[in-house]
Every structure is written in C-alpha cells, then in structure tokens.
From TrEMBL:
E.C. number(s) listed in UniProt: 2.4.1.15
Lineage: superkingdom: Eukaryota
Keywords assigned: Glycosyltransferase, Transferase
Protein name per Swiss-Prot or TrEMBL: alpha,alpha-trehalose-phosphate synthase (UDP-forming)
GO molecular function: alpha,alpha-trehalose-phosphate synthase (UDP-forming) activity; trehalose-phosphatase activity
Cellular component per GO, a single term: cytosol
Naturally occurring in which organism (per UniProt): Gonium pectorale (Green alga)
One Pfam short name: Glyco_transf_20
PANTHER family named in the record: BCDNA.GH08860, TREHALOSE-6-PHOSPHATE SYNTHASE
GO terms of biological process kind: trehalose biosynthetic process
Family: In the N-terminal section; belongs to the glycosyltransferase 20 family.
Amino acid sequence: MSSLPDCSSEEVVSTSLSTTRVDRLLRERIRRNRSHQAFDVYEDPPPEDPVLETVPEPPTQARLVVVANRLPVTCSKDPSGRWQLQTSAGGLVSALRGVSNYVTLWIGWPGIWLKPGRERDELTSLLKAEGFSPVWMDHTLLDLYYNGFCNSVLWQLFHYVPLNIDSWQKMAEHRAMQLQWQAYQVANEKFADVVLSEYQPSDVVWVQDYHLMLLPSLLKQAVGKMKVGFFLHTPFPSSEIYRTLPVREEVLRAVLAADLVGFHTYDYARHFISSCTRILGLEGTPEGVENNGVLTRVGTFPIGIDPERFTRALESGEVQAQTAKLLNRYAGRKIMLGVDRLDMVKGIPQKLLAYEKFLEEHPEWRDKVLLVQIAVPSRTDVPEYQKLRSMVHEIVGRINGQYGTLTYVPIYHLDTSLSFTELCALYAVTDVAMVTSLRDGMNLVRGGWTDGWGWGGRRWRG
C-alpha cells in the first residue's frame, strides 16, 4: 500500500536531494549488513508447547531483558484463591516467540491493578519466580498513558488515522493532550525504575514498541554503557505525518538514545531517518543516524513465523481430529478466513462489505462459499472500539439476513481468540485467507495460513 509522500509539493525541489540520499544510504546499509544479527540473538528456537519437541537449553550468554507494555502472561485466581499464570495470545507474544528461550527476564505491566499490600506482593513473587518483573500503575495513570497518549495519539498517528474535529476540540477543552503526554512520561519513568532495579552490567535491554519510546533515553541517562535496543512493531509514518505530533522532537531524540533501532520494513526505517534529518537536522549515514558524534544504528528486521512449530502442530492428533471435524461441517463449500484483532486499522468492515458485494454480484456462489471471521476483542473499554464492534455485528447481521437460508449461513463471526491448535485446524481447511489491514506493522496471519494451507492442502485435499 502506498504511503503519503515525504514532502509537500512546495518542498519537492528543496528536499529531493536529501530524499534520494536517504534512500541510497539505507539501501547501502541493507546490502552491507543483510547478514548482520543484532546483539547476537539466536534464531527462532521454539518455545515450550505441547505440540513441540524438547528444545535444547541455549548456551550461557548475557541476559536478554525484554521490556514491553504488557507481560506475556494473564494473571488470575483459581477457585482456591491462588494466583495462576497463563500465556497470553497477544501479537507481541507471537512476534517474540522465536527468541523466547533466550529471554532471561521480561518486564511489563501485569494486566491488572492491585493496591499495595499482601495480594500484590504474592503476585509479584510468583511473577519473579517465573522470570517476569511487574510494573505497577494506578487506574488514572494507566488510562491516560495507555488509552490516552499511546492509543489515542501515537497508534492513530503511526497508522495514518487523523483525529477528527471532535477529538481535537475535546483535547483542547480539557487539556487532554498535555495530561496524556505527562502520563506517558511518568509511565516510562516507572518502567525505567524497574529496569534499573533489575539491571546487571552484562544485560542487553530490548525495548518494545510505541508505548515506551522515551525509555531508551531514560536508561542511557542512568547507565551510559547499557546496551539498549528499540524495536517498533507498528508502521512509522512519513515525516509530513509525523511532524504533526506536538512532541515530535522529544520522542525522536529519546529513541535515538538506543544503540540499535529496528523496524519491520525498509519504508518504515526510511521514514524514521527522514524524520530525524528534517525535524532534528541530523545527518543520516549508511549505518543509521549520527547525533552529536554518536551513531544510532537503524535497520530492518522483518519478523516471521516458526514453520516447524506449525508443521509439528498440524501432524498432531489433536489438530488432525479438529481438521476432520471442520471439513465435515463445511463439506461442499469453499472457506474464506479472516483472523484479526478488532481494531480500526485491520479493515474488518471493509472486508465484510467486499464479501457482501461478491455475493451480490455472483449469485452462483451463494451457498457455495462462507466466511469465517475471528475478531479478537481489543480495548473493550474504549468507546471507539465499542462502536466498531457494533458496526461489525450490524454488517454481519445484514449479510446473513439477506443471503442466509435455513441450511446456509454466509458468515460465521466469532468475538473471541482461538488456541494455537484451533487456528492450525482452521488454516488447514481454509481455501482463501483474507488479510485486509489498512496499515500494519507486519501481519503474521498470512504466513501462518500459507504454512498451514500448504500442509493441509497436501494432507486433506490430496
């Protein structure tokens, strides 16, 4: 998908040379360093999983400390009142699965709020025993930081979603932007305090995503020799879009404090370097960005899936049994599949409307094709996401009412997440995967489906 140009029509002449130079420098950097592995992180050892074989222990090395907004576990109590931990199904957990055996410590918010006291101390002890260090925040701070600046400002900006007039007016009247920015700063400082309390001199600290863009600077100010990497899992917008952020310079300089800044694609890295040169007036190099004589390396490191994990799962008895049931249930019909987080940028309404148009213009396919749409709930307490959920349900109801019969339902819509084995079974029987994100960091559904369908096609379709 094309992005907005990096400069307005008035600036084309004056900036064309710098744009060309940035392109050339980045391409040279990619050619020269294509085989470079940041921080000696080992490649894709599979995590513990019932469908996986035993994996050898990694060799002894410096600790890899991952710092992310959320811990990769869900905390809850069992019927007896004891705390229990369950692996989460979030996108970041899947993205980092390949290096999970080498993460010695994971720092993040535990997903719940507890007052200081015995309960919090008990959960903290349990988390630390499992290699997790929690960052505690109260309700007000969390709402302003996470729902406010992270997702109402940065998330939308990075995905080219402009704020509407009502949103800007509300921000102006209630000083929302200032309060959210202050909360973002305080939250990043809380993360820094926990990192510094756990830090050992040989550690490599890997900061994740837009929630913690101030953290590299805070850590480097405290320990100048700390090895810090930063990876952005979302797109990075063109400089013309990014420059609309009121605190654009503060955020860029904080990220540049890292030793290495990583992106999924060449375009995102190019936009970042372009923003540094145009907004901060810094010099780009074949390796990254120079700031006061210090080089911050910038690179592209696209994530992928672990195909061996899918292969082992697809060969397991549990997945084969579920696959057989699905083939029997949907016998005689072509299956389309959508697996998305319920978010504005995932294009779920657009996907449904396109499917509706297909059924309208090709009546010969009615009763011969169906769409299975998995919409994983996200940010359910945010009004905009509640409206999106209602819109999706309305479209699904209209299509099923228009084209459904007593024996045929055009759309099977589920507001839930699925287990890995359930996803593998769906991938194996699906004929068409519909990935319709308007903008995305790096969507892994297409990789999982391609691997699953390839195996499923050979096994079940002959």
